[in-house]
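Entry 14. Ran structure prediction on the chain below.
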Amino acid sequence: MDTLGAAGYKKARHAYDNPETVLPPTPAAAASAARASQKRYADAFKRQAVEHWLRSDRPGTQIARELGVSYPSLKEWKRRYHGEVLPGGADLAAENRALKAELLRVRQQRDILKKTLGILSEPSPSATSASKA
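Output, structure tokens:
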């Protein structure tokens, strides 16, 4: 009784005698309640949400708001499912290299055609001397 004091002892005794009195939750109980109140989403929903985000041009906060999920959850799902939603990260790099090589080849062809066109469109020296005579 000395550590609680008279007022503290009365409050503790009142809470014990009256089960309707709401006591603050213990830290373990608060953590358990927080886990119980968290929403659980199916993996298919998470994948679709990430795919929707990646294929749209809108910010993640807007997508999260539309789907009714938190933005941190959406970011976590993206981290977890990004490879599954858009497969072929290595394939994309290989395709990128191939496209760059093709672009280089096509530019070289274009430059050759420009030079050829320039050569063919120049009047020949014999044609200009013949027209003057």
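The chain has three domains: 1-38, 42-87, 88-120. Will compare against last week's run tomorrow.
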